[in-house]
Amino acid sequence: MRYAYGLTSALLIGGATISLVTGQPAGAQVAQNADNRIENAVPRAGAPASFADLTEQLAPAVVNISTRQRVEVQSSNPFAGTPFEGLFGNRRQGQPTTREGQSLGSGFIISSDGYVVTNNHVVTPQGRGTVEEITVTTPDGTEYEAELVGKDAESDLAVLKINRAEAFPFVQFGDSESARAGDWVVAIGNPFGLGGTVTSGIISSVLRTAGAGAYDRYIQTDAAINRGNSGGPLFDMRGNVIGINNAILSPSGGSVGVGFAIPADTAAPIVERLRKGETIERGYLGVSIGPVTDDFAAALGLPRNRGEVVQSVVEGEAAERAGIEAGDVVIAVNGRDVTPDQTLSFLVANIAPGTTIPVTLLRNGDRRTVRLTVGTRPSAEELAEAQMFDGNDDEDEMNAPLDGGEFLAEKLGIGAVAINPSIARQLGVETDMQGLAIAAIDPSSDAARKGLQRRDIILSANNQPVPSTDALEAIVRDAEERGREAIVLRVQRPRGPSQYVAVRIQ
Q1: Which helix (H) or strand (E) holds 490?
Q2: Can you tell me the distance from the alpha carbon of 126 to that of 118, in angstroms, rounded to the nearest whole number?
């Protein structure tokens, strides 16, 4: 989590914790239909004298969500605190150890048969781990085992199903598009593990853009939201869910009155698809983009706060096929203007792959429109791999899962990935090259002492080709069985001749 004036997920951390209704009536003053939906929760207009009636009616549908996790713990790790902290285990002991962890958050029931909405990060293990059990606890203290029906990392949403045939009181999504700054809202959740906590406030801003992702658009509220509120509902004064509490902006990790909720209009269609077990597919152009600054707008004679600059184009994707080039300024997609509140990423992500659309852009001051067929956005892992060796060697670019696991890390002190056309282009080599690209290296290993470094390419080991990490692992195992203390690697720098390097097996 990022605390120092950063956007931080509202998770609970404490000690060994990973920081992260019954069929009874939901309130004495609530009118319910036959399937238990909470209705007509309407206090007096204007500033209410009390939120008690509203809270009494809605609280039974808000639940606590906890998980039990099995987490790998690494020791003596030179990469602790980096994306590779799980790669190099404690080689003195041979294997990493595991411990039990927990996470805690909030959620809300959206159907009488027990479907529950929460944040993806509430039910996803941090680092190298697995979730072994999910428990949903209702306000009366009853615990239910739940299963994960579906989750979506990009929107940070997840849907659970309570494994019990009961009729649960539930709430429903409202219309977040009609929400206005200044409207009263109520948040109910479990901050710091304190179940059934209610806070109130107003909407501070609608569609606040708090990042560069397709779904970094939030309702901002000054209703107190803290770690543990993640996944809980933000209600309007009619008792409808208009947002899902997700993150806070804070210098300390606690609430300072700047909280963010995923808008219901964004969440509802994704939740419905997850509930049905459908795969979430998003549109994709294959470009990296940047903002149109005031100076940029002045230089091109553009209106301020409109358009985004194409920084680069991915080979073979929709944008390149349509003739879009680096330096183009995209000002409209499918007839909708590109603005800070309606970014290119958001517009494209919400267009079904395979749809043909017009894209309006400026090139060298000339306005033109191209038509293109929207592609399918790759997974987060595929996108990370596609950027693994792009640009410089900053650690924040090294997020893709590496091949080879702990074995190569333990024996050679390296993390490697098989070269594919995407990685080959990043390294500046022929796309049909076979071998392994070094993506991480233990600075205390013999390989590092021999000069091996990130971006080096292993072409062979003991004069045998290594098209995969499995092949390299087999060669190392064979060498150990023969009593050999080292293997010979043929290594090539991206811009240099190959050389043979003998690396000791640890």
Answers
A1: strand 486-492
A2: 16
Tell me which residue has tokens 């998003």.
Answer: 282
Query: Which pLDDT value is given to residue 2?
Result: 33
DSSP state of 379: P
* Structure token pair of residue 133: 């059990």
Backbone angles phi, psi at 84, to 5 degrees: -105, 15
pTM: 0.66
Query: Fold for domain 283-376?
Result: Pdz3 Domain (2.30.42)
d(CA 59, CA 81) in angstroms, rounded, equals 39
Q: Which amino acid, 52?
A: A
CA nearest to 297, candidates 358, 342, 344, 362: 362
For 293-317, the three-class secondary structure string (H helix, E strand, C coil) is CHHHHHHHCCCCCCCEEEEEECCCC
Q: Say if strands 115-118 and 157-162 run parallel, antiparallel, or are unpaired.
A: antiparallel
Question: Rounded to 5 degrees, what are φ and ψ at 37?
Answer: -70, 135
Average pLDDT, the chain: 80
The confidence band for 88, taking pLDDT boundaries of 50, 70 and 90, is low
Q: What CATH number has the domain spanning 176-275?
A: 2.40.10.10
Task: Tell me which residue has tokens 């929207």.
Answer: 374
Hey, what are 493's tokens? 């720098």
Rounded to whole angstroms, the Cα distance separating 62 from 231 reads: 10
Q: 382-504: which CATH number, 2.30.42.10, 3.30.428.10, 2.40.110.10, 3.40.50.720? A: 2.30.42.10
CA distances 41 to 14, 92, 190, 263, 497, Å, are 36, 62, 22, 20, 73
Which CA distances in Å does 204 have to 179, 183, 261, 431? 11, 8, 11, 50
Rounded distance between C-alpha atoms, residue 224 and residue 258, angstroms = 8
**What pLDDT band is residue 254 in, cutting at 50, 70 and 90?**
confident
Equal CATH topology for 10-162 and 382-504: no
* Three-state DSSP class for residue 459: strand
Q: Which residues are catalytic?
A: 121, 156, 230
Q: Is the pLDDT confidence value at 51 over 50?
A: yes
Strand bridging mode 197-209 / 329-333: unpaired
